Every structure is written in C-alpha cells, then in structure tokens.
Amino acid sequence: MIEFWTILIIKTLVAFAVSMLIVAYSTWIERKVLGHVQLRYGPMRVGFHGLLQPIADGVKGFFKEELIPDNADKPVFLLAPIISIGAAITLVVVIPFGDTVTIMGHKIPLYLADLDIGILFVLGISTIGSYGGMLGGWSSGNKYGVIGGLRASAQMISYELPMALAVISVVMVSGTLSLVGIVENQAGLWNVVKQPLAFFLFIICGLAEINRTPFDMPEAEAELACGFNVEYSSMKFALFFMAEYCHMFVFAAMVTTLFLGGWYGPLLPGPVWFFIKTFAIIFFCVWERSTFPRYRYDQVMELGWKVLLPAGLLNILLTGLWMLVFNI
Amino acid sequence: MMEKKDYVLNVSERRPEKGKYLLPLFKGLGYTLKNFFSKPITIQYPTERREVRPRWRGLHRLKVDEQGKLKCVACGLCAKICPPQAITIVPYEEEGGTRYPKEFIIDEIRCIFCGFCQEACPKDAIELTKVYDYVDYHREDFQFDIEKLKTPERFIFTGK
Fold first, then answer.
1. Buried b (16+ CB within 10 A) or exposed e, A185-216
2. What is the model's pLDDT at position A181?
3. What residue segments make up the domains of chain B, in order of their start?
4. Which chain A residues have a beta carbon less than 8 Å from that of B41?
5. Which of A209, A188, A198, A124 is nearest to A165 (CA)?
6. CB atoms A38 and B35 under 8 Å
7. How many domains are there within chain A?
8. Which of A126, A190, B17, B53 is the most buried (most CB within 10 A)?
9. Do A44 and B36 lie within an 8 Å CB cutoff?
10. pTM of the predicted model, to two decimals?
11. CATH class of B60-155
12. ipTM value of the model?
C-alpha cells in the first residue's frame, strides 16, 4: 500500500514538474520561433541564447505590483486565474506520456490516470478552463474585458461542437473513450491516416479552443487591448499566460494521442517519441501564429457554424458508412 | 488620355473567390518557414556595432603630438566659428611664448556635430571621431573638458 502511494506521489510530482517546465519553455520556444521567423533572434541575453528567460520572467512576475481595480468584483476577479490554471493543470492527469516501464522491479505506467472516459474528461475540463477567461473579463469592470470575456464564451461554445464531433469519429474508429486505449489502438496505423478530415478539424478547433492566433478573439491585442486579462497584473496575469501555454501543451499532447499514435514510433523509447510529436505540434502552433492574420469576429462564427460543424457531421457519417461497409 | 479603369484599382474586383485563399495560406506557411531557417539580420548592438561611413561626424577628440602635448594653441577659431557656441576656451601663455588652452570645454549637448571646428582649426588639433553613442547620468557630465576630450573611445562597449 505504501509502495503504491509512494509511486503515485512521485509520478504526480514528476508529471507536474515536467509539464510546468514545458509550459515555461514553450514561452521561450514561442519567442524564439517568432523572432527567427521575423529575421530576429528573440531572447538572447539571459543565459545561453536566452535559455533562462522564462525564469527571469517568472521572478519579474512575482515582484510586480498587484493591482485590483476599484469597480472589480473582487472574489471573482481573484478566482478567475485560479480556475484558469487549475483546469489547465488538471488536464495533465490523463495525458499518456508513454507505455508501462519497469523501474527497479516495479511496473510503472507512464500516465497518472487511465480514465475510462478520458477524452470526455479532457473536453469537459478544458471547457471549465474557459470559464477563467470569461469570469476574469467579466469581473474586471472594464469594457474591453467584458467584450473579451463574451467573445471567449461565444467562441468556446461554437468550437466545442466541431471539436467533439472530430473526437467522436476517432472514438468510433478506436472503439474506446480511454486515451490509453486510443493510443494502443494506433499501434499499426495512426489515426491521422484513418481520419484525415477529423485531424484537420481537430487542429482548427483546438487552435480556437486554446485562443491561438487566427482565432485569438478573447485577447485581440489590436481591437481589445488584450481583452479579458486587461486589468490583471503581476502573477495573476502570469497565471493566465501559464494556463494558456498549459492548454497549448495539452492540445499538442491530445493531437499526439488521438491522431499521431501517442508513444508509438521506431527505435527511440516511447516517451521520447511522445515528446518529439508534442513539440512538433507546439512548433506548428507558433509557426501558424507567425503566419496568419486574425479572423474577423463574424468570420470566426461563420467558419465554426457553417463550415466546421457540417464538415464534422459529414465526417461522422462517412466514418459510419465506412465501418458499416467494411464491417469493422 | 488614360481611361479611368486603367488607373483606378477596384479592390472588390480583385477579391478572391470563396475558398480561393486556401492555397495562399499554405504559401504563407512556406514563406515563414523559409524565413525561420534563414539567418537573422539583427546586429547584437553593444557587442556588435554597425560600421559607420568614413565621413561620420561623432564625438570630438583633441589631438596630441609626439610628446603627448596638446596640438591646440588656443587660437579660438573653433569657438568663433561654432554655430551653437558650444566651445569655451580659456587660453594660457607661458613665459617663452608657448600658448595652450588652460580650459577647453565642449558642451556635447549643445553641439550640432557640423564639423566646422575641425575645418577651421589651423593646427589640425581637433577632429570628429566615429563615436556616436555617449551616455552619462547628469547634464553636467556632458561638459567635456580636456581630459574627456582626449579619450572619446571610452564610450565604446568592450566588456562582456
């Protein structure tokens, strides 16, 4: 019994530390990649090629002055970043980093929990995370914040549907809701080959869900002056950003898990493959950010409801027919 | 006479059809990826410096001769010609008739770096160097005296 708890606690700590490290360093990756795309270097001064920049940023965040606006709804204002980061970190629980490994005679599965409803859990908790942005914008007592929060809620609702539809077709192919089961199902052929349209849909909707640039409506810098986090300062602001990057990591991990075969790959051990694929998706997130301009708000809604939702339904129909015809 | 349609650009006619923007999206991705792998054009300023033109007019230097004495004879021509009157000279004459400046002060905040002083100088005693980034904490620190004017290069960043 003690052994079980020790392994669990160690595993939790390691997973937490690794995720936080990835979250911190995805800011570094973002700034570096954006810099190089724009023929700059990005951070160069703090440490070798700016490698200590995330730590410097964190220290700065802690020492900054903390402001709460007079007309803010104080409890909700304080709660919003906590909801945001809490939900984002909770998602790390179900990510399957790798297969079972044997360390000192103990069989240790490289995931914290293999929930039977894994993918539903991810969809549900990520929606709770969007409450953070919504409540934060709403409670700041600032019109930009309110508009940002409204946009956040509208966008979440619109893009959750096609995303869930894309996931459903994957679930139909795999026959299980458990993330570990879905990965094990891809041992032979990755889902990206079986479900290219769902992959495409999932990437687009995921980018909208994690508020990345063609869909960064809630914090459109040019129109809303940062939107929902406009009144936040110091570490509360940093928490929002950590939540955003944590969501990005979880999104990349979900793409890896659902479509790119999780930990499967030749030669290298499982977790290494998992992280290679995850970082490739994170790189893609930054890459497309540096390329695409932001959608107009009505265009975002139009794309979500008129294009992605029918495409998702069509994909489910096709998957169903395919399974019926070939009797899988 | 040009027809109106030749020079009026109607943007709405050039707008692509629905769905035609898919290919340009991928072209854009290719362009940014190409940029990502090309070398940045940034000059890492304090450690690397942009090379300025040979005729660049920067901070002044008072030249010294082989014995290490100032070439300046305090004739006052530079102070006379200086358009913003940034140069102050207090001359001093020795017993034997040698003249040199007791004080030579240039107000580097007033100076407009026109270069008239180095052109007016009959003894080739003052010149403008290529140092363009000079910083200090107080306004008074920019009243450069003889010692400061001898070493304008001290502003160039050499440390780590």
1. bbeeebbbebbeebbbbbbbbbbbbbbbbbbb
2. 83
3. 60-155
4. 39
5. A198
6. yes
7. 1
8. A126
9. no
10. 0.81
11. alpha beta
12. 0.73
